[in-house]
Amino acid sequence: MTLAPISPRPLDSSPVRYDPSSSPGRASSRVQSDVPTSSSGGLFVRQDRRPRISTRRGDIHSDAFASSPSQRRRIYIGEDGLPVRDGQDPASEATFSNLNPDTSEADAMGGDSTRVIWGTNISIQDSMSAFKNFLYNFTKKYRLWADGATEEETRALGPVAEEKEYLEMLQNMRKLGVHGLNLDARNLKAYPPTLKLWHQLQAYPQEIIPLMDQTVKEVMVELAQKEMQELQRSHDATGASRARNGSSMPPLPHSDIESVATPTATPAAAAEELPNLVEEAEIRPWKVLPFGLDQAVNMRDLDPKDIDKLIAVKGLVIRATPVIPDMKEAFFKCSVCNHTMYVSIDRGKIAEPTECPRQACKSKDSMDIVHNRCVFADKQVIKLQETPDSVPDGQTPHSVSLCVYDELVDVCKAGDRVEVTGIFRSNPVRVNPRQRTIKALFKTYVDVLHIQKIDKRKMGIDTSTIEQELSEQAAGDSEGTRKISAEEEAKIKETAAREDIYELLSRSLAPSIYELDDVKKGILLQLFGGTNKSFEKGGSPKYRGDINVLLCGDPSTSKSQLLQYVHKIAPRGVYTSGKGSSAVGLTAYVTRDPESKQLVLESGALVLSDGGVCCIDEFDKMNESTRSVLHEVMEQQTVSIAKAGIITTLNARTSILASANPIGSKYNPNLPVPQNIDLPPTLLSRFDLVYLVLDRIDEVNDRRLAKHLVGMYLEDTPENASREEILPIEFLTAYISYARSNIHPVITRPAATALTDAYVQMRSLGNSLQSSERRITATTRQLESMIRLSEAHAKMRLSSTVTEDDVAEAVRLIKSAIKASATDARTGLIDMGLLSEGVSASDRRRKEDLKRAVLAVVDDNDAVRSGNAIRYSDLYRRVAEGSSVEVDGAEVQEALRALEQEGKVQIVGEGARRSVRRITGV
User: Per the record, which residues fall in region Disordered (predicted)?
Assistant: First the structure.
């Protein structure tokens, strides 16, 4: 029999574990025997010396290339024309197609042909060589040319344009122990030799990505070999120098000290001293993580033609399951002869052996699975939903399931806006879990390869918001949200050095809204935020740095537009309405997981806004039970849950920007703020800034506003454009993100003195020398608000310290907000009791005077009529006649109820027959 060699192929399987047209029964398996032998060490089961490392990645099986190129076996063909394996009986009945589907029959017969993967036009050698050429030779100039740069512009960059980007990335991966190579698909398209590979990557990702993984592994081995050769040369040079400068000590005669090292080391000892970089590169699971497709697909546009294609979708993460162990290789053991074997799993299907493969045994149904010897991978199921701004009118948001594996687990959490690159897959659904009959309806999901958190119009997350122990991880995650380049950083610092930076930033915030300068400045400082702190002296409690702002006023004053603008640029922001929100919708609710059928906790709007800004419109329309959950969130920044057996505390470290309309749709200046908007004083006092946005009639301002609105509808030409400088929204978000991430100001001694003096001065306003009343003009919450606002103002200037100027601006904002919202309508004086208690000092004094007047009338009647009761109508008439100001009937009734609760009077009868009698002590 003559054997004709065929081109080498890896091991005994195809380049890809899963062939789209093959059956699950063709899953490869590795067989080993646990029968005790002379080399197995007695009766102990033989174990591999090297720990088992799985190179599987999700549903893409890239471990077909399990060996290095030098270790690949050759395939031969017998006299009958059938290909046979090394060491196998040539009389095999296997056909060529199911033995090696990656090689054509012309190759098998000795002819020259291109090896392609069955069912595709992918040439294995061409694809691998093109990708290896890309890794070695791609430079930045190709991407610059693809983006429209000219040769002169590229030449002006000098050595930067000639940097071999991916070769440097591979070197860094080896040094840092990173296994994933982030591959920008746009670079593949920009490099001419890999243009075909770019098309194939999107059409056949199941076949191309394992080839890329193997190519990266080969390049890593080559780089490791080069480094080993350099290390060997340097080691040999060092050994030679040591030999030349050898010791003159004579050899020791005693045999007990023969093992003492001599100056000249043997070659074997020298080889043992060097680390085996090649072996380390071979056993590592190198993976290619593609991203950067030309355009992202809308979830609504996904259809059957996208199945098994590489796609990119954008959305909002609404749920992430705990880590699920996903079996990748099953371990079977024969219960008769203890023969063992590994069986690979193809897309969730285990090809369970029906008999023992050992020739001497061949027992039927004797193979049992051993779970603790199986190979598992980390898996997580994520629910991705359309973002609210991309949902068409009159439609509900669509969602899609994502499956992430290994290093991508826990990369994103609920509330993140992400762009996901992966393979769109379909799975059959069983009619009954206990039966193999499947439905005609398939369930789709995305097998994720890469996750990217990028939105240039969104600000980055404040890393100080995250817990201390997670700060490093959060900082790494937040870099993906908004990356600041070196050019942008230089421009940001140049802008921050301007004298009018405060006015410029406030002017750039919602430029289409006319005036409202103080409101814009307050919201601007809310976006920058203060610094989160914890003090060891106080038992390390967390002190919030987030600023809460309430806008209250008449309709058509641009309150909702301000909220919408902030929502567009705020990180992890959620926009909700008071009437359309429930208590569990804001915090968290319990639902049943569709996969595991267990009760799980779903995050609400406040929890999803953790680290961002939650915008709540129509704040006054909330019912009492919904508003009650905000007390804990706005001060402690947590949500405590105890329902359905789930007891936990969720983080809700968010800033709240709310807007409320007054009762009757028109603000009544004669009533305090709590009575105008029907909010409890305990909730109102938790807002750092409460702005009244009123619609006052003023001809001059009305004319300016009308001109501004009409000018917005004019044609946008240079002569009609605004002369004031306004920053673009992308630069504004980059500026705020940079300040939130890198600037953490500290209060200086002069600033602390200024804060103390301002607080004492505000408190002293309540001690009027002309009257005996004592009004509350400031509380400790106002002091903490001043600290947060001064820190935010320092962040805005990119200053690491809080100065007296920052404190002065914070005090001005606090005073302007208090002057508008906490001014007593009767006296015109500031009284914080309006916000903290809902009642001013003048109201309290008036109520006490009215109670004394009512009691005096009742006492006079008791003295005249000898204990007889006085009718309510007579009582009201006499009190009104004796008062210098107008007395309302409701006030008299409230005074009577208070006296009755104190046990001083008794009310007898109902309606018009009511009478009041004095109660005397016994």
Answer: 1-110, 231-268
Q: Which bin fits 70, alpha (ψ -120 to 50), beta or left (φ > 0)?
A: alpha
For residue 709, the Cα-to-chain-centroid distance in whole angstroms is 38
The three-state secondary structure class of 105 is: helix
Please answer whether residues 667 and 694 qualify as being in contact, where contact means their C-beta atoms are separated by less than 8 angstroms.
yes
- For residue 621, what are the domain limits? 457-839
The Cα 386–Cα 615 span in angstroms is: 19
Q: 839, 857, 875: which is the final residue of a domain?
A: 839
543-547: long-range pairs with CB below 8 Å, 24+: 543/784, 544/635, 544/637, 544/653, 544/788, 545/462, 545/464, 545/465, 545/788, 545/791, 546/465, 546/637, 546/653, 546/654, 546/655, 546/788, 547/655, 547/688, 547/689, 547/785, 547/788, 547/789, 547/792
Task: Read off the pLDDT of residues 144-179 as tens digits, 9 standing for 90 and up.
Answer: 888 877 877 878 877 877 888 888 888 888 888 888
| Token representation of residue 603 | 């995050």
Q: Which residue's entry shows tokens 């105890």?
A: 642
Beta strands in 638-688 (DSSP E): 638-643, 646-651, 655-660
591, 593, 600 from 597: Cα distances, Å:
9, 5, 9
pTM for this prediction: 0.59
Residue 685 and residue 779 in contact, taking contact as beta carbons nearer than 8 Å: yes
pLDDT in tens, 97-150: 334 444 444 444 444 446 777 777 788 888 888 888 888 888 888 888 888 778
Last residue of a domain, one of 394, 426, 453: 453
Give me the CATH number covering residue 471: 3.40.50.300
Q: How far apart are CA 516 and CA 501, in angstroms?
A: 18
The SS3 of residue 852 is helix
Q: Cβ–Cβ contacts within 10 Å for residue 284, how many?
A: 18
- Greatest extent of the chain over all pairs of C-alpha atoms, in Å: 139
